[in-house]
């Protein structure tokens, strides 16, 4: 990074930490004009180190997720807030599905005092946390543990979810993207619809299995997910009963 200025290196550090930074926030942080920040962002984007977004800058598009530890350190306050809201709504005695992701692991931390929960998950970190409560029944699929992602993958994962009917299925996602959806029967206009997305088809397939076999489906997504790009569709937002996010309403 010898071609970067000190401020550009600091901007890059902030973007990797938070995934998205607004131009106004960076301007205030460095006490420079928004025009100066835009020049810095243009330089970073021209080198492929960042990606422009409306009003800000984020991580470049990628076909793979960042490491679990890297994601775990991102947006902690927002993820904890989401986790607390979700855990408070899960009644004792429920059967729940937990998908992959760091927010899901934080939800597991807040479920440790619940009683008589049956939890089916391929989230290895969540299973480890919940296994410390003797009042929990934990089910894990067979498969390979991905140390990079903190989860279990393999053909048996979706099959295990299909053997249960959950009261609540909770998934995260890698990104939220908007697509034009064809008009439904009797309608003439297309519509823009937000979709939960994953990086890999096998990850999307597991989330779809959770959705399909759950009485209620909940999505958890931090605000940064709206600034990221992934290519494997999971489900449109209207497929979820509840969406938990700190994203401002109507944004």
Automatic annotation (TrEMBL):
Residues 4-59 form the HTH deoR-type domain. Signal peptide: none annotated. PROSITE patterns: HTH_DEOR_1 (PS00894), HTH_DEOR_2 (PS51000). One of its GO terms (molecular function) is DNA binding. Pfam families: DeoRC, HTH_DeoR. InterPro entries: Carb_Metab_HTH_regulators, DeoR-like_C, DeoR_HTH, NagB/RpiA_transferase-like, Tscrpt_reg_HTH_DeoR_CS, WH-like_DNA-bd_sf, WH_DNA-bd_sf. Keywords: DNA-binding, Repressor, Transcription, Transcription regulation. It comes from the Bacteria. This is Glycerol-3-phosphate regulon repressor. The lineage of its organism: Bacteria, Pseudomonadati, Pseudomonadota, Gammaproteobacteria, Vibrionales. The gene is glpR_2.
């Amino acid at each position: 990074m010898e071609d970067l200025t000190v401020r550009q290196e600091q901007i890059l550090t902030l973007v990797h930490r938070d995934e998205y930074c607004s131009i106004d926030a960076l301007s205030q942080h460095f006490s420079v004009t928004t025009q100066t920040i835009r020049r810095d962002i243009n330089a970073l984007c021209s080198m492929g180190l960042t990606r422009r977004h409306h009003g800000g800058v984020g991580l470049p598009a990628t076909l793979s997720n960042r490491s679990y530890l890297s994601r775990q350190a991102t947006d902690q306050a927002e993820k904890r807030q989401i986790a607390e809201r979700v855990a408070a709504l899960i009644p004792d005695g429920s059967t729940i599905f937990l998908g992959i992701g760091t927010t899901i692991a934080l939800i597991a931390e807040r479920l440790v005092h619940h009683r008589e929960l049956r939890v089916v998950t391929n989230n290895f970190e969540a299973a480890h946390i919940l296994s410390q409560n003797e009042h929990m029944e934990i089910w894990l699929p067979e498969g390979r543990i991905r140390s990079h992602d903190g989860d279990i993958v393999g053909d048996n994962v979706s099959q295990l979810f299909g053997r249960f009917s959950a009261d609540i299925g909770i998934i995260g996602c890698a990104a939220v993207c908007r697509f034009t959806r064809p008009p439904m029967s009797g309608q003439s206009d297309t519509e823009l619809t937000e979709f939960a997305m994953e990086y890999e088809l096998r990850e999307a397939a597991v989330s779809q299995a959770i959705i399909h076999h759950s009485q209620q489906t909940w999505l958890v997504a931090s605000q940064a997910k709206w600034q990221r790009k992934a290519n494997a569709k999971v489900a449109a937002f209207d497929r979820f009963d509840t969406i938990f996010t700190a994203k401002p309403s109507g944004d």
